[in-house]
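Q: What residues go here?
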């Protein structure tokens, strides 16, 4: 990555300013803009997050915001209400208040003397979500958004639920992580003596987000709010949607291209939950350059050619040995002129006694008893490039599943889109789930995960009104797998693997489940097969990444990193330990701030006992400067019995050596067809 310090227009930075809102709340902003913007106004690009402009995103902002500003924009990083140096309390994700605030901020920006009146909005993850949600409100000045690693569907495609199953890997840890992060105080260097009163108010009033999330276990109005898939037509401005195959949110890119009525583009690389010019898996691209082509077209009216190129560009991943970490994922860039694409056609393979076949065989009942440890090789739901977070060799999980293999391929086979698996099945319990994985089997037998999907079978007719199964009754269910672009090599085989357990992704059903799958004409794999295009070879190459000079950071300690699995053969206990290095302990030299963020999550279950499932999170966050030291610790745990999900969460906050706040929340959530 090339460091660029000189830009077409010199940049000045406003480190901290307050934007007043109509209700008296003030949101803290950091602004980068050309030095001469008052004389030669520029469009403004908003990024609104709860992740703290002063320290939380300071490193990444320093590498990105000055670069864009130096090319003629005002880049504005705003702390959401209740975070960083902003007033108020943050009560949940993507509240109506948050979107109202963003609309007000855009109006404020458009009215500044250094702004042309044209605005854009951008963000990755949280900022990608609210960019879409704000666009649906149609602020007058908002002409375009650039949304990365975000979802259009808050229920079906986020950290809470997948296919109606509780996403155990993320539901509790993400709620606890936010609880810890929001327990950081405003920085006294910026807000003065009022920091402590604001901090104590936040500690008292900020709720654990998990209460709302587990109080709504089916798709209802709570989840419809902020899910722009409810009305794509509400978004009229131009949308550039970006994702990565190792990220958890990539499905939305294809849905947005298919559903939005206005100008739109999609880009999907091999990346994890990070920017396309940073992190793994590679290859990385010059994404800041690509961003400027988008903004120049829509906010300045310059013909950059960005809208003359194919609507969708993706990294076609090639068959490769499974690894828990890739520096670079083998593959090539391909493109489609539109989406859905006439270049992608359905191809059906039937589940048969002898595997996956072109022609259906006779109906055969195949029983499979679920193993609670199935899923140990799942990896994380949303990779962020940490060591060992991608799925490894799937043979262990395949051995705990019902599998169907194709014959070796005579020629390469490319797929692009959403594979689906239709199952004709029965279950022996009223509550059950199914996990379906599509794997790429090399000639030596190694099994690499291609894509997967979950379905709570009580949600077989939709997520709004779940219905228990009648044990022994036959049902036809369709499991949509996550979107993927994958080229199976000649000589490789396809494998469909089916299991009624997938821990720790899916919270297990209350009783062990035996599924019976009826192989034959009604059970099938539907593949989105893509015909290779000669035009792919002539695609415009992306430039190499560039960024602004980085901040000076001193790393003092590294937090826990990676994923380990422990098995107790005597008791049947299986533990997965996820250690996330969220920065460890480091010092931001420019503001003389020591910052600490670490967490560890343990997922445990005992073979044969789904009610033994347990998720335990422990996280610490802290800030220090000279004699001033604060830290917050969160300990959170989720367990269950046959009828109730039990959650406890404890927050302790310290100023120096004194504990200034301590509270434990205890929740009992009735299981709603889970």
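A:
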């Amino acid at each position: 990555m090339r460091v660029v310090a000189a830009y077409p227009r010199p940049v000045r930075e406003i480190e901290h300013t307050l934007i007043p809102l109509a209700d008296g709340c003030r949101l803290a902003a950091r602004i980068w803009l050309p030095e001469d913007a008052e004389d030669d106004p520029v469009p403004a690009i908003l990024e609104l997050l709860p992740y703290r402009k002063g320290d939380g995103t300071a490193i990444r902002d320093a590498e990105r915001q000055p670069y864009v500003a130096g090319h003629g924009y005002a880049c504005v990083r705003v702390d959401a209400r209740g975070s960083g140096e902003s007033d108020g309390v943050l009560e949940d994700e993507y509240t109506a208040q948050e979107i109202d605030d963003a609309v007000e901020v855009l109006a404020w920006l458009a009215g500044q003397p250094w702004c042309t009146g044209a605005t854009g909005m951008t963000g990755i993850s949280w900022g990608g979500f609210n960019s879409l949600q704000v666009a649906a409100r149609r602020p007058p000045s908002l002409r375009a958004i650039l949304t990365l690693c975000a979802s259009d569907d808050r229920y079906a495609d986020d950290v809470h639920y997948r296919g109606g199953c509780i996403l155990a890997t993320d539901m509790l840890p993400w709620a606890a992580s936010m609880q810890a992060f929001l327990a950081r105080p405003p920085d006294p260097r910026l807000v003065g003596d009022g920091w402590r009163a604001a901090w104590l108010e936040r500690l008292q009033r900020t709720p654990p987000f998990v209460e709302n999330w587990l109080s709504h276990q089916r798709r209802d109005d709570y989840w419809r709010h902020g899910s722009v898939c409810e009305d794509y037509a509400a978004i009229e401005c131009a949308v550039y949607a970006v994702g990565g195959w190792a990220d958890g949110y990539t499905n939305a890119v294809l849905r947005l291209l298919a559903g939005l009525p206005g100008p739109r583009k999609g880009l999907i690389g091999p990346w994890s939950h990070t920017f396309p010019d940073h992190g793994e898996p590679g290859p990385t691209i010059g994404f800041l350059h690509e961003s400027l082509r988008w903004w120049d077209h829509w906010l300045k009216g310059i013909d950059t050619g960005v809208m003359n190129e194919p609507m969708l560009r993706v990294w076609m991943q090639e068959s490769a040995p499974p690894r828990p970490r890739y520096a670079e994922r083998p593959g090539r860039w391909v493109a489609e002129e539109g989406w859905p694409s006439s270049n992608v056609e359905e191809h059906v393979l039937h589940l048969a006694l002898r595997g996956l076949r072109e022609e259906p065989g006779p109906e055969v009942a195949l029983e499979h008893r679920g193993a609670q440890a199935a899923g140990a090789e799942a990896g994380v739901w949303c990779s962020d490039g940490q060591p060992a977070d991608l799925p490894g060799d799937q043979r262990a999980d395949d051995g705990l599943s019902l599998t169907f293999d194709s014959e070796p391929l005579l020629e390469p086979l490319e797929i692009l889109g959403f594979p689906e698996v239709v199952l004709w099945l029965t279950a022996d319990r009223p509550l059950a789930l199914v996990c379906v994985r599509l794997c790429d089997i090399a000639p030596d037998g190694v099994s690499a995960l291609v894509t997967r999907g979950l379905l709570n079978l009580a949600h077989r007719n939709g997520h709004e009104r779940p219905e228990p199964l009648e044990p022994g009754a036959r049902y036809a269910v369709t499991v949509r797998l996550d979107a993927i672009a994958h080229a199976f090599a000649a000589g490789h085989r396809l494998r469909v693997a089916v299991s009624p357990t997938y821990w720790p992704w899916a919270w297990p059903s209350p009783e062990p489940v035996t599924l019976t799958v009826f192989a034959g004409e009604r059970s099938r794999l539907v593949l989105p097969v893509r015909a290779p295009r000669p035009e792919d070879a002539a695609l415009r190459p992306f430039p190499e990444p560039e960024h602004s000079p980085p901040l000076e950071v001193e790393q003092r300690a590294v937090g826990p990193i990676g994923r380990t699995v422990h098995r107790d053969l005597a008791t049947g206990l299986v533990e997965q330990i996820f250690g996330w290095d969220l920065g460890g302990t480091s010092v931001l030299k420019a503001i003389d701030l020591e910052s600490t963020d670490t967490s560890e999550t343990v997922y445990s279950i005992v073979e044969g006992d789904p009610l033994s499932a347990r998720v335990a999170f422990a996280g610490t966050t802290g800030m220090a400067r000279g004699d001033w030291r604060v830290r917050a610790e969160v300990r959170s745990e989720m367990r269950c019995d046959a009828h109730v999900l039990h959650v406890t969460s404890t927050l302790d906050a310290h100023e120096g050596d004194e504990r200034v706040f301590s509270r434990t929340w205890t929740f009992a959530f009735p299981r709603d067809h889970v």
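A: Context that may help when evaluating the design: The first helix runs from residue 58 to 69. The radius of gyration is 25 Å.
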